[in-house]
Predict the 3D structure of the following.
Amino acid sequence: MHNLALALHNKGAKVSGSDDEIFEPSRGRLQLQGLLPEAEGWYPEKITNELDAVILGMHARKDNPELLKAKEIGVPIFSYPEYLFEKSKNKTRVVIGGSHGKTTTTAMILHVLHKLKMDCDYMVGAQLEGFDTMVRLTENAPVMIIEGDEYLTSPIDRRPKFHLYKPHIAVITGIAWDHMNVFPTYENYLEQFEEFLNVIEPGGTLIPCYEDGEVKRLVENHSRKDLKIIPYTVPDYAIENGRVIIRKTQNSYPVAVFGRHNLMNIQAAKQVCNELGVEEKDFHKSIASFKGASGRLQKVSVSDSQVVYRDFAHAPSKVKATVEAVREMHPEKKIIAVLELHTFSSLNKNFLPYYKNSLLAADEKVVFYLQHTLKMKRLPELHPGEVRKYFNEDDLAVINSSEDLRQHLDGLAQSESVLLLMSSGNFGGIQLT
């Protein structure tokens, strides 16, 4: 939300906002532009008929006093995705959907277009090198690149966000059950992707990952015949002198990222860029300098004894892909994989069996979670023995204290090792690198 506020401010709009808590980096960035509210909390007197619109964040409640005031006096109310669609109605909309890889694929597309000086608007879920904000809205850019989240739109609109964007070009990177707090069954979750196909504009283009069996089945069984289908899989590649090389018939192209999942993301980005008029040789020349989106399998430190990576991975399929990618890149080193269970799904006993063997490629495996997080999410207590059973790892270290985690990792530190930290949280607020 704060990135949207900054984007609108940069466009010349008069922007104000409210929240009950504002954290860094949002606080500092808003303050720098003079947009930080004078006080936290909700002030319905701020809502007047002088406003052109109110944009509602997902985490406001239905009884929010400012929302109720806006309804009462008839100020137009938009959810975040509704507003993005409203501002991109006359543009070619590219939407990247999928259970994993959305942010990285979107970032790759933006990186290439930026390198080639091709004008576009965008919304992406991570801070990118070379971009001031995670949202850009202009009048003249002909294309809008949107990361299409399947989570709910707002407290008063229970549709998934990516159903509102109506793409001309759509990507599905993969399907693996997530967000079980709002999609209680796998079938219910899958339905959201079926509907995503339905909202693609007539005659649009669909770019599905056929390495993912569920995506392939979904697309092949779908009734729409008007879509242009461009499937993709993992390209032919090799690792030479610690660098990944994509091998083509005539040429080979080095890339700065690694892992089969990232190579699939590159293929998705390439197909999108091709549809936008980018030639293959220009794409590969541009993507070579892409080092990853913030927090996505990012190398955060290197010493004589250890390499440390940080990854946003939390869903089972992404955890497995990330661990296997690090193993492939560092076959001779000891791999220490640390996973924080932080989301509602990852701490739910009905979902935990999906993590079976997800850490198998690591030498040392650690799962960390706080009992406080379970209480906050109103979930039952989770015992270490249960976690070991769900992960199918008898020697799994299960840790519930941030300080105990730090001490455990200090005890594992040794030469020629790789530490992989995976979480959508912050490991209880401690600094591990």
In short: The two ends are 29 Å apart (CA to CA).
